[in-house]
């Protein structure tokens, strides 16, 4: 598995280099700040369509990573050609999900952050 990318050209490069599954998406995640901080990103539906065509032509697969906030978004990702869909934000608050449980003023919350966040960099670096 390799990624994240948003162009068919990069999908082809990664598959030809040995990856069989490519993660697609830069900036669409529910807690992602990449677009705001860097000005870089690409519409997720367009990225999935372009990358799926490239991957499937080389017998590879793609994961749509980000941009799903309701079941319709998942259906759109599959309709655009995704083989798999990541649902971080949609599932993050459930009691079964991973993450630290925080309680404030009698309410419970799950700590949820993007993998390029400062918290993730400190935790996993």
UniProtKB/TrEMBL annotation:
Gene3D superfamilies attached to this UniProt entry: Aldolase class I
Pfam families named among the record's database cross-references: IMPDH (PF00478)
EC primary class: oxidoreductase
Superkingdom field: Eukaryota
InterPro entries reported in the protein's UniProt record: Aldolase_TIM, GMP_reductase, IMP_DH/GMP_Rdtase_CS, IMP_DH_GMPRt
Keyword Oxidoreductase: yes
Species of the source: Homo sapiens
Keywords: NADP, Oxidoreductase
Entry-linked PROSITE patterns: IMP_DH_GMP_RED
Lineage of the species this protein comes from: Eukaryota, Metazoa, Chordata, Craniata, Vertebrata
Molecular function (Gene Ontology), one example: GMP reductase activity
Record flagged with keyword Zinc-finger: no
Descriptive protein name: GMP reductase
PANTHER family hit by this protein: GMP REDUCTASE, GMP REDUCTASE 2
Record-linked SUPFAM superfamilies: Inosine monophosphate dehydrogenase (IMPDH)
Catalytic activity: IMP + NH4(+) + NADP(+) = GMP + NADPH + 2 H(+)
Enzyme Commission identifier(s): 1.7.1.7
Domain IMP dehydrogenase/GMP reductase residue range list: 2-123
């Amino acid at each position: 598995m390799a990624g994240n990318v948003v162009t068919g050209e990069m999908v082809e490069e990664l598959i030809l280099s040995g990856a069989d599954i490519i993660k697609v998406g830069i900036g669409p995640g529910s807690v992602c700040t990449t677009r705001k901080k860097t000005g870089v990103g690409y519409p997720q539906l367009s990225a999935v369509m372009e990358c799926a065509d490239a991957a499937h032509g080389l017998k590879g697969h793609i994961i749509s990573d980000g941009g799903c906030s309701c079941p319709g978004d998942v259906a759109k990702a599959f309709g655009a050609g995704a083989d798999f869909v990541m649902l971080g934000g949609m599932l993050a608050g459930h009691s079964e999900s991973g993450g630290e449980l925080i309680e404030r003023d009698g309410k419970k919350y799950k700590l949820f952050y993007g993998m390029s966040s400062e918290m993730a960099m400190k935790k996993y670096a």
